[in-house]
């Protein structure tokens, strides 16, 4: 090998080394960015979860029956909730689960609380919320309440427990607390539904469309679907539909828990 060939070989090795260093540096930058993103995501999620836990801990539950898993009384400090967010207008409690959250509704953006927590932090876990298709008095034939299915078990994740027959039979009630009254609902179905916008598809202000919705709920056939056949629901009733994502690879489906008003 002559001197020119040696110089050329050294030059090529130098370029290869520089390329390796550049690629390695870029990978390090990508890794650090991903690390920062993950840290920021989990940090924000944990902060939001902590705030929800603080809210839950400040809500006093009394006279709870272990046998029936019912709650006879709950003291909600709505003034304290409004100090956090004026959009809060109700509170949901499901005995037998950890679901105990304020309910909000945006005045201007129906998707806002899908992406923002109750204190206005962007990102997961979002909030428990309704859209302006519904009033805030729970006087509609069908009130849709939404919440994320979080992997850490918070928000509406535990709704999926109702796919188990034993759990479904044992935990039958949902309580909605308003500033001036308490509404008690009994669960009559838990089903896998598609991803249609329910109130956009079924205009439940019309009796026939509400009947159509009930018919479709009762017609669903799946091993996970549960029904309480002793609870009769018709067009004269008022129901709530609790909606969340499926916990597995079913992005085009939603898990719904249906409950009918039995006491106010």
Give short descriptive properties of this protein:
264 residues; alpha+beta; Sortase, Chain: A; nine-stranded mixed β-sheet; two-stranded antiparallel sheet; 6 helices; 11 strands
What is the secondary structure topology, with strand pairs?
Layout: H1 3-57, E1 60-65, E2 70-75, H2 78-84, E3 88-93, E4 100-104, H3 112-115, E5 128-129, E6 142-146, H4 165-170, E7 173-178, E8 181-194, H5 198-201, H6 207-219, E9 226-227, E10 239-245, E11 253-263
Parallel strand pairs: 4-5, 6-10
Antiparallel strand pairs: 1-2, 3-4, 3-7, 7-8, 8-9, 8-11, 10-11
Question: Would you count the extended β strands for me?
Answer: 11
In percent, how much strand structure appears in the residues? 25-35%
- The low-confidence runs, each spanning 5 or more residues with pLDDT under 50, are 31-45
Number of helices: 6
Write down the secondary-structure element order. HEEHEEHEEHEEHHEEE
User: How would a crystallographer describe the biggest sheet?
Assistant: 9 strands, mixed
Q: What name is given to the CATH topology? A: Sortase, Chain: A
Write down the CATH class.
Answer: Mainly Beta
CATH architectural name = Beta Barrel
Taken together, the total number of domains comes to 1
Overall pLDDT confidence: 85
Structural class estimated from helices and strands: alpha+beta
Gross morphology: elongated
Helix content: 25-40%
How far from one another are the termini?
96 Å
CATH superfamily: Sortase
